[in-house]
Amino acid sequence: MEQTPGTPKALMAAVIGMGILIVVGTLGLVGVIIHRMGSHTPPTNAALSAPAVPLQDAPARPVLPAGTHLINMARVRDDLLALHVSTNGEERILLWQVSTGRLLPGLDTAAPSDGATP
Question: Which residues have a Cβ under 8 Å from the Cβ of 101 and sit 6 or more positions away?
């Protein structure tokens, strides 16, 4: 018996098997992508959603002096907000403790009047 030159049967079987695995893997990947696109629900972030606070338990808003305008507000800590306010052209920073509704003294942003530089 003469053997003709060519590829061994085991190598040919391995190539065909890998080709089948590539096709099956590609079809599986496309199927997963289509499934995820079809059943997409928007993610919910529990950290961003705050529980509803009944109106009677809500802290009182701070009462700013007459002629005072709120320029900006920033969170300092969980229960403390910094309020940038302007009164007659002078700017100040007040601290508002939200849980109690109290305004705490902050700092005055006016430049020193004696001309000295800090």
Answer: 59, 60, 61, 62
Q: Which candidate, 109, 80, 110, places its Cα nearest to that of 95?
A: 80
Residue 18: both structure tokens together = 């890998």
pTM value is 0.42
Q: What is the rounded distance in angstroms from the CA atom of residue 105 to the CA atom of residue 89?
A: 18
Neighbouring residues of 93: CB distance < 8 A, sequence distance ≥ 6: 82, 83, 84, 85, 106, 107, 108, 109
Two tokens, residue 68: 């005072």
Cβ 101 vs Cβ 59: under 8 Å: yes
28-80 pLDDT per residue, tens:
999 999 988 887 666 555 544 555 545 455 556 767 777 888 888 888 888 88
Q: Both tokens of residue 46? A: 């529990």
